[in-house]
Design goal:
- The structure is a single chain.
- The protein has 84 residues and is an all-alpha fold.
- The protein has a domain of 48 residues.
- Helices cover 64% and strands 0% of the residues.
- It contains two helices and no strands.
- Helix 1 packs antiparallel against helix 2.
- The radius of gyration is 16 Å and the shape is elongated.
- The termini are far apart.
């Protein structure tokens, strides 16, 4: 696409993207909780997908509100990635 958009439209699109990513994060977290007791593999996949959306949110937040995560500690726990 070669549509030209102004800054206000770009901001609206990023805000809609952030809202979508927030909803997806909630969905994957809830799904992970539901699956935790009877399907640990699927729960792990849901957790990883949730982490991906969390990263997307952090990036969009930094674009929309620079410095908003500057003092935050990483939310990924030491065992979540598999290797230390």
């Amino acid at each position: 696409m070669t549509d030209v958009v102004d800054a206000d439209e770009l901001l609206r699109r990023m805000q809609r993207s952030r809202a979508c990513a927030t909803q997806e994060l909630r969905t994957w977290r809830a799904r992970g909780e539901e699956l935790r007791s009877h399907d640990p593999g699927a729960a792990r996949e849901a957790e990883m997908r949730g982490l991906a959306y969390e990263v997307v949110l952090r990036v969009l937040d930094e674009i929309l509100k620079p410095g908003s995560h500057a003092m935050d500690a990483p939310s990924v726990q030491s065992g979540a990635g598999g290797s230390p």
